[in-house]
Amino acid sequence: MLSAFTARPIIELKQRDKSKIESILAYDDRVLVGLNTGALRIYRLNQLPPTTSRLANGNSSLPTEQSVVSSTSEPSTVSTNTKDGQPVPPPQTEQTAKPTDLLREVERFSTRAIEQLARIKEASTLVSLSNGAISLHDMATFEPLEAPLARTKGASTFAVTSNILKDPITGIPEIISRLAVAVKRRLLLWSWHDSELSLDVTEVLLAEGIRSITWANATKVVCGMNAGYVIVDVETSAVEDIVGPGAIAAGGQGRFGAVSATGMSYMGLGSYMPKPLSTRLAEGQLLLAKDINTLFINDSGKAVEKRQIPWQAAPDSVGYSYPYIVALQPPAKGSLEVRNPDTLSLLQAVSLPGATALHFPPPNVSLAHAGKDFHVLSDRTVWKMDATDYDSQIEELVHNGKLDEAISILGMLEDALLKNKTQTMREVKMLKAELLFKQKKYRESMDLFNEDEVNAPPERVLKLFPKIISGELGVEEEKESDSDEHDEQNGNGNDESAAKTDVPVDVSSPSRGGGFTKYLYGQYGHRKLNPETASIMSSKKAEDSEDAASIRGKSNGKPSRDEKDLMNAVLELNSYLAGARTRLQRVIDPVTGKLKPRKTQSGSTEEAFKSLLTSTKDEGDEELERELQETCKIVDTTLFRSYMYSRPTLASSLFRIPNFCDPEVVNERLKEHSRFNELVDFFYGKRLHKQALELLRRFGSPDEPDEAAPNLHGPQRTVMYLQGLSPDMIDVILEFSEWTLRRDPKLAMEVFLADSENAETLPRHKVVEFLGGIDTSLEIQYLEHIIMELGDMTPEFHNKLVELFIQRLKVMESSGEWDQLMERLVRFLKESWNDSRQYSLLKAFDLIPKMDPRFYEAQAIVFSNMGSHKQALDVYVFKMKDYDKAEEYCNRIHKTQDTQPASPSQTRRGDLSNPEDAQTSIYHTLLSLYLTPPPEHGVNLEPALELLSRHGSRLPATSTLSLVPNSLPVTQLESYFRGRMRTANSVVNETRIVKGLRKTGLVASEALLLLGDGMPGGQGGKNRRVVISEERVCGVCHKRLGQSVIVVLPDNTVLHHGCLKSQPGVGRPAEAGAWGRSAGV
């Protein structure tokens, strides 16, 4: 059992002393003892040397002075230290120190037995109950101040309390002490304000006699009676029954008896009335007890849902010594029970022969934990209950395997009472989680590991699993011994019998690192544990392959029991690993693997650092970053193994997000299961693009699909992969796109032609050079894309494209494909020059074959771009003899001739163009070629006449008629003359129409000025009237208009003429000045 307290006798009456101890009062280093003779003895408590029972700072081993004995022990003395079954003599000192010294004895303190003692510290007053009355004595001289206290005759018990309260009027804090006295049915209340006793005495009358009193808080007191309990408000005198389950509540029904109007009775016991007991617990709770029935309430008197304390016999007295509930059994048993107020389980039983009462320091002495050293008294002895330090208590509970009790006690203790409460709680919970795992409660175990307060290190959790799941951190399977299977406990320590002391077993923790790893492992790196927890980490030697085969093996088509258990454990492990990934990502960026910046203010990232980066020494960020990356690698790699074992389809989802999986493990495991699609996704996420593309080429390039990965056959998957690579991977893109271009050029060109940022930002010079080495047509296609669609203005690319077009056209035979390619060249020569003018005209002119009729049109376009329109028309008319294209060319030039600047090539190549052509109509040039051709060509009269009939009006009459042959009949020029006259008449008619429209507009404007628009509230004419009253003010200066010169705006706003000039943006004086003054005044 737990050794929370050790009994040490500090006062023992000598055998010749016939007195009996009735009550005590302990404060500071004084112990006041009230005897049955009415005498009061004052003892001084000496500073005793430390004994082995009081562990110093938790560094000693377990207590050697055991006071835990059974209820059947010899009721002689407290058990002493033993070794090998023999008593060990106390340590020898120069002079045996006495625990107490008798300082004084007040023989005539009272005439009867002193039943109860208390003190009002602020008033230096001693309160005593003797001879059925309350007396007040001075603490210094023990002289009576008021003995007996008025109105207390017949008192049965009392209770005192001191609290710091604010004055309701002034709001100034003051110490208020209160005394509650039970006199039969009356509850009398006195109060001290600081050290002054108030003359007002409050009296509250209850339904029956009061048997016990306990202060619930500064203003409420719980009174126990035969019929039940009530809570009294001392300020308002309000009385409220405490109602709850069990026999202790008023009007309730018990388990072994009934409560009637007169009280509780038992068959065969007559009118025996168990004393109602009560004590104040921590956090505003109280414990009420009657017989073996208990009820927990808050300080408002409301019942708290909690089961009853499993007492085997009714206690004589109950109390609370932080953080335990203590109960004193009847003197015949002489046993003190120590229980956990949370679990209500028995933690310690101390044998105290003949003990009759408990004494606790009042709650006002200090904090709640100040009562940890309390006293127990019998007729002849007073024991001081020395409390073991809490770190040692927790260590002892863990050593005995009572992990639930340790967790519960840690939750109740204050942080200041432990060296490191957070770390200790975390370690105990991890031990509990390991025990739950051993008991195959995998979900509860992983939930406990995954709690924010626990945050178990992955290395520690993974050691519970075989190597097929956790790799090098895993254990090898071992059949548990029969003794381990026989002694599986929950670690809650709820059994009432004394626990057997097990032989400690050394359990080695994982090797520690620094920073994050040290915090995860904590200070419990090596510990002696109960075999229940030690057996978790046990293992035996076996081959890894045999282990994996035994786990995954199946007999008769059904999974084995071990495999089912492992499957359940792995499924729950997935949730823990997911939580661990989330916590790690609070401090490390999963994309870059770098530490996230720490915030100066309180924030999520800063809190994550505080919880994860606690270590015994400061470490550099680089070292910490490396350790975090290693931990992330362990977590993600194990999560991948878990998915592959339990849910293989989920493995791909892990690869779609940033991860730290070990590439070697993933590569080996995925290849083993022929999951090459997931392997490609993993390589892509880890930026191992070369390995991924080699895998895709391995399965995609063969003519027949591979059975292991039929989905990877062909270039489709490789093309999609290459499209996702950034431009800085250009060497890899070019290396692995070659086989796709040779296999399916149309599909593979999407790597370079796709409408995506990656494709548009590729290094174009490298791509052009690479595509040229494979196929010229691919190079042409890419150059057309970047020039015509992406608008690349690099002259080198423009000249290269023209050169490739011409070279390819030269070697190709005339066909439909040749015509399409020539059409693309002609379109490029036209559009590219009109848009960017980046390619060299001279170089293009030199590349085009001069005598090949198939290149005449391209040659004409180059002449046109040079500004040599006559040479271009000469090609259309005399070489191509395509008069329609010649006329179309003239139409295009005529539209752009007025806006397009002259080409610089006109001056550079004077031998190919006439500078006067720019000043002559393009149609006149074409007509001259038709009617006055060079000597080697004849006159083209028919196309000339068609040109005159269509565009005669655009030609100068004198020069045009001079070109017409004299022999040409006039009748053939009829269409020309009709066109000229129709054009002249059109100009005259257009002028007349414009004149009429303008005249109509003038009439409409004059009518609007004179008559207005006729709309209500619209613009008025000159005949409108504006009334100026005496109250009307200017819209600018807001002064009366009076006899001043005014201006009326079109919207009837009236202003001073001067204000209009000073505010030019307000109106238009030109519109209102002429007629504004004609308005009526």
What is this entry, summarized?
Helix content is 37%, strand content 18%.
Written account of the structure:
This protein has 1081 residues and is α+β, with helices and mostly antiparallel strands. Helices cover 37% and strands 18% of the residues. The chain contains 37 helices and 38 strands. Strands 12, 13, 14, 15 and 16 form a 5-stranded antiparallel sheet that branches. The N and C termini lie far apart (115 Å). Mean pLDDT is 78; it is low at 52-95, 247-270, 478-556, 600-618, 902-919 and 1068-1081.
Low-confidence residue ranges = 52-95, 247-270, 478-556, 600-618, 902-919, 1068-1081
Q: What is the rounded distance between the termini? A: 115 Å
Overall pLDDT score? 78
Please give the share of residues in helix.
Answer: 25-40%
Q: Which radius of gyration do the C-alpha atoms yield?
A: 54 Å
List keywords for this structure.
37% helix; 1081 residues; 37 helices; 5-stranded antiparallel beta sheet; 4-stranded antiparallel beta sheet; alpha+beta; 18% strand
Write the layout of secondary structure elements.
Elements (H helix, E strand, L loop, with lengths): L4 E8 L8 E7 L2 E6 L4 E6 L36 E2 L2 E2 L12 E7 L7 E7 L4 E6 L2 E6 L5 E3 L8 E12 L6 E11 L2 E8 L2 E2 L4 E4 L6 E4 L4 E5 L4 E5 L5 E3 L16 E2 L4 E2 L11 E4 L4 E6 L2 E6 L18 E5 L2 E5 L6 E5 L6 E6 L3 E5 L14 E5 L2 E7 L2 H10 L3 H10 L8 H18 L3 H8 L8 H5 L4 H4 L11 H5 L18 E4 L7 H6 L4 E4 L1 H4 L9 H9 L1 E2 L2 E2 L1 H24 L19 H9 L8 H26 L4 H5 L7 H10 L3 H10 L3 H12 L15 H8 L6 H14 L1 H4 L1 H4 L3 H4 L3 H11 L1 H14 L5 H17 L4 H20 L5 H7 L8 H11 L2 H11 L3 H14 L8 H4 L13 H10 L9 H11 L5 H7 L10 H38 L34 E3 L5 E3 H6 L6 H8 L5
Helix pairs in contact: 1-2, 2-3, 3-4, 4-11, 11-13, 15-16, 16-17, 17-18, 18-19, 19-23, 23-24, 24-25, 25-26, 26-28, 28-29, 29-32, 32-33, 33-35
